[in-house]
Amino acid sequence: SKHVIQNIPWTTAKNFTVEKGQQQIEELISTWDIHESWLHHSEFLEEEELKDSKRYHYRACWGLPTRRKPVPRATASVYFVIVISKLKPDTAPVEVFYRLESSRLIRRPEQCEFRQKWLQDIIENKILCAERL
């Protein structure tokens, strides 16, 4: 059986606000299959004005705190962009993309299932690098 990719109904351009964008990113993250031991916080970074769109940049920073180490040794960030087209009607939904901090690959939530392993790989690589220094 093919796994169903979870996505959420995104707001329309005319109903978009920075706060609504952050709420919707949180809503998307809540559909991801990530163990509850992973904690994150999300934040709005910046607004970018382009010729045919406005882009809103956000970041979700992930870590694995434990009782013995409440401050994680390393974190992994996922960067989100919410795009509002100036060419489409304002009743069209916003477009959403994300990428991992260690990657140039840009993903769309409706086309790609998020994997917890990506976060683990980033953190493991950072810890390995730190141990080498």
From TrEMBL:
GO cellular component terms, semicolon-separated: cAMP-dependent protein kinase complex
Entry superkingdom: Eukaryota
InterPro entries: AKAP, AKAP_28
GO molecular function, one term: protein kinase A regulatory subunit binding
Protein name per the record: AKA14 protein
Organism the protein comes from: Hypocryptadius cinnamomeus
Gene name tied to this protein: Akap14
